[in-house]
Amino acid sequence: MNFASKPCHHGLLWRAGLMGVVCMLQISGMQAAGLMTPGLRLNDQQIEDLRRTLEPLNEALEVLVEPDHAWAATYLPDVLIYQKAVASALEHREFHDVSQLEVAKGLIEDGLARAAHLLNGRAPWASKQGLVVRGYRSRIDDSIQPYGLVVPENWDAAVSFPFPMDVWLHGRDNRLTELKFIEQRQRSAGTFAPANTLVLHPYGRFCNAFKFAGETDVFEAMEAVKRHYPVDDRRIAIRGFSMGGAGCWHLAVHHADQWVAATPGAGFAESAEYLGLWKKEIKPLWFETQLWRLYDADVYAMNLFHLPTLAYSGGNDKQIQAAQVMEKAMAEHGMDLAHLIGPETGHAYHPQSKEELVARHRDMVRQGKEVMPTKVRLTTFTLRYPEMHWVRLEGLQRHWHRARVEAEIRNESEIELLSENVSALTLHMPAGSCPLASDKAPVVSLDGQRVVAPRVGSDRSWKAHFVKKGGQWQGVEDHPMPAGQWRKKPGLQGPIDDAFMDRFVVVKPSGQARRSYADRWARREMGRLTEQWRAQFRGEALQVLDLDFQDDAFQDAHWVLFGTPETNAVLKKILPYLPLKWRSDQLMMGPYLFDAARHVPVMIYPNPLNPGKYVVINSGFTFRGFGSNATQVPRLPDYAVIDARTRASEDVPGRIELAGFFDEAWQWGF
User: Fold this and answer.
1) How many CA atoms lie less than 13 Å away from 120 in the CB half-sphere?
2) Span of 65-69, 189-193, 302-306, 537-541 with lowest mean pLDDT
3) What pLDDT was estimated at residue 626?
4) Can you tell me the distance from the alpha carbon of 173 to that of 34, in angstroms, rounded to the nearest whole number?
């Protein structure tokens, strides 16, 4: 069937998508985001001097990675952060002030000092109080990422007394290189530094409002801190201001059971109202509005039932809008947002309001997080965010539509649960925590249907799985994927951008295809991903040529395949298992037929050759353009077809002829 015979309004798709971005970029007064601001043009002598100064650190690192220094591997990222900060700024022209040349030399000295300590079997900074900058190796791309710490003065490495921890999210700064970030964290404790509290400053992989890989960075940095310092898991708070306030809203509502308290300041909480999109003549596309539900905090406001939250805004700050939006959203669920407003204050903390904020935050943290609440409320639109305390969603009836659960432990032998748009779930309580009686099987009432569940373990742990079939709930032993059938499940639910929040590898084409729009487009997009990944997420994308690709070597990664079946051997190998037909002259996506010479499929799908991971075809992360951080949301769903004759730009990938989501069984949603 020819695509032209199907009603789709594909020309409008392209125009609205382009104009939607243009509208976003033309909004004034918004916090800009995107690429690093270009730096100074250093002269040849400055470049040579800095390279020569960096060389001893490079040589020391070469020695430290030798087998004789295996002990040093634990602390090696704490040295590599200095080398990366200077080398990256040097290679990519990211010195924004002449004074940063001296900062770079200082960081090289710091790196050399740490390297010398490691060569002597010591790591004194690991037991240092006050301001400490450390690093970790990210599982996403093996990159070294820095983080800053404020270590309490009464902390002693020999004493394992756990400390509360504040996670502070920084504001926007388009010049925030690793070099600048490390220098700041070595001289400033930041806006808040409570006594007897560890303060973690994640880098967040630059300026993405702690979304995508920036979100992953927060949790990877937290895990790195926990490996080296005693952290009280019941007293970890999330805080931030401006862009960091936006990140705080996002992480608070999506991970409400992870924190003891949230204190967002300013920022934004959603995209549409903040950007004024509904006032524009041309509206965003249908799948774009659905994809806002990934990061919009207001639609997840119900989850704050579990999290003490105190918002702050300057009374004269336009970004008070974020708290007002959340106040309205919380009210719809019977909650009143506590909101401090600095009188006659712009985009800053009012001194008296700040004092009150400090006192009330301290009180919230002192109470500690409730470990096993008797009531659980959870809402989500995607299995990317499936869990709240002892309730975990395993399947939705329809993705990108509201799912919700309200569960309550009624007594020692009964749990009552009401659900909406849920097809499978797990109730789980870790060892030592289950309040249910252990001498009889509990009964779970699911939407009024009573199901007998497994008994509680002797270690006071409990787990029960339930699926909904034909409108009826039933208990099952586990949730195995049905043979020969994919299901959307947590970590395998799309959209395309989901693959870039975890480890991925780019598989490059080696073949030479006939010159076509499609082949040229795919190669340009591959270049865009690798270039923009470094620029916007501060890492180097793992890459391998298709002929050198070994399946076994990348079982822990999503495969991102670029090219066509003619040019990419891995794509040709996996194609028979994917739900599309792609020959040299013809591309078929479901019932739709396209000219393969000028059309390119982009998509995400469960990897048939590597179950539990994705395969991505011809796409990197999908947001484009460099406007407000609120525009940094997924711009394409699970699949699309691009007319490659329309050249991709920094605004659009090309003319979008077809786009949509796979259904819950990863089948075409036509």
Assistant:
1) 9
2) 65-69
3) 67
4) 10
Question: Rounded to an integer, what distance in angstroms lies between the CA atom of residue 495 and that of residue 512?
Answer: 30
Q: Which of these, 617, 605, 610, 622, lies nearest to 667 by C-alpha position?
A: 605
pLDDT digits (tens, 9 = 90+) for 311-370: 999 999 999 999 999 999 999 999 999 999 999 999 999 999 999 999 999 999 999 999
Largest CA distance in the chain: 79
Vertex 136: Cα angle to 198 and 615 (nearest 5): 125
H/E run at residue 136: strand 130-137
Name the residue among 391, 441, 448 with its Cα closest to residue 416. 448
Task: Tell me how far apart the alpha carbons of residues 434 and 431 are, in angstroms, rounded to a whole number.
Answer: 7
Instruction: Calculate the alpha carbon distances from 345 to 43, 338, 340, 354, 355 in Å.
Output: 43, 18, 12, 12, 15
The structural architecture, per CATH, of the domain 44-367 is 3-Layer(aba) Sandwich (3.40)
Give CA–CA dist 480/612, Å, rounded.
12
Which residue is listed with tokens 């009889």?
440
pTM: 0.94
By C-alpha distance, which of 91, 115, 83 is closest to 179? 83
| Residue in 310, 302, 274, 372 with CA at minimum distance from that of residue 633 | 274
Rounded-to-integer distance, Cα 548 and Cα 572, Å: 15
Residue linked to tokens 């301001």? 131
Contact 507, 559 (CB under 8 A): yes
- Domain ranges for the chain: 3-28+491-660, 44-367, 387-476
The secondary structure of residue 169, as a DSSP letter, is E
What is the residue whose two structure tokens read 């075409």?
Answer: 668
Contact 528, 620 (CB under 8 A): yes
Residue 2 has pLDDT above 80, yes or no: no
3-state secondary structure 606-634: ECCCCCCCEEEECCCCCCCCCCEHHHCCC
For residue 413, give both structure tokens.
Answer: 């032998």
Q: Which is nearest to 17 in space by CA: 646, 639, 635, 650?
A: 635
Query: Can you say how many angstroms the Cα of residue 581 is from the centroid of all Cα atoms in its chain?
Result: 32
CA separation for the pair 178, 409 (Å, rounded): 48
Q: What burial class does residue 543 get, using C-beta atoms within 10 Å of its C-beta: 0-12 exposed, 13-18 middle, 19+ buried?
A: middle
Beta bridge partners of 603: 617, 639
Category of 338 on φ-ψ map: left (φ > 0), alpha (ψ -120 to 50) or beta = beta
Q: Is 244 left (phi over 0), alpha (psi -120 to 50) or beta?
A: alpha
pLDDT at site 555: 96
Please indicate whether residue 2 or residue 236 has the higher confidence score (pLDDT). Answer: 236
**For residue 77, cis peptide bond before it (omega within 30 degrees of 0):** no
Cβ distance 267 to 326 under 8 Å? Answer: no
**CA dist., res. 601 & res. 287, Å (int):** 17
The Cα 248–Cα 88 span in angstroms is 28
For residue 412, name the pLDDT band (cuts at 50, 70, 90). very high
Picking from 654, 639, 634, the residue whose alpha carbon sits closest to that of residue 590 is 639
